[in-house]
Write a structure and sequence with these properties.
single chain; Rna Polymerase Sigma Factor, Chain: A; 2 domains; mainly alpha; 176 residues
């Protein structure tokens, strides 16, 4: 149950419920792209939306609402990674069941996936977020820029650098 800071009318609650329903899946996707696992992504999405709700009076409407929300989400992600760095925590891995014909294929696929996930984790958060929003969500450069408050050329460079660095990290992994 949300605790309100100031009295809130039921109309405001209903209006924000619509914002929550629209933004929660997108924020969850964003936090997953930042490297957080399912339950953590859910928690961080709720945290970001709570901050949006609590700070709704600070949004003046002179900019893009989504950009404002994603700047809050970016700060939540950054704070969480800093907290984890101090606490020495590592993200919990969630196994996704696969239907694979043989154990050999399963093992090889899991090893490739693990190498790829490890390489993705080594990318800076901004590069990783841009790359995953493009690859997983299929978003345009413009939409990624809007969500992350970045210029389109910056998004293009981030994705290009992320792909190049990811390729390099995977090649290093394969080299004896």
């Amino acid at each position: 149950m949300l605790r309100s800071i100031a009295p809130v009318s039921s109309g405001e609650r209903e209006e924000f419920r619509g914002v929550f329903v629209e933004l929660f899946p997108r924020l969850r996707s964003y936090f997953r792209a930042c490297g957080f696992q399912g339950a953590d992504a859910d928690d961080l999405s709720q945290t970001a939306l709570w901050i949006v709700y609590r700070s709704r009076g600070q949004f003046r409407g002179d900019g893009d609402f989504d950009a404002w929300v994603y700047s809050i989400a970016r700060n939540v992600a950054r704070d969480e990674w800093r907290r984890r760095g101090r606490a020495g925590e590592e993200p919990v891995s969630e196994a996704i069941p696969d239907r694979v014909p043989s154990a050999e294929i399963w093992t090889t696929g899991r090893q490739d996936l693990r190498r790829t996930l490890d390489a993705l984790a080594k990318l800076p958060a901004g590069m990783r977020a841009c790359l995953l929003l493009r690859a997983q969500e299929g978003l345009s450069y413009r939409e990624i820029g809007r969500r992350l408050s970045l210029a389109v050329p910056t998004v293009k460079v981030q994705i290009w650098n992320a792909r190049r660095r990811l390729r390099s990290l995977l090649e290093e992994e394969r080299a004896p």
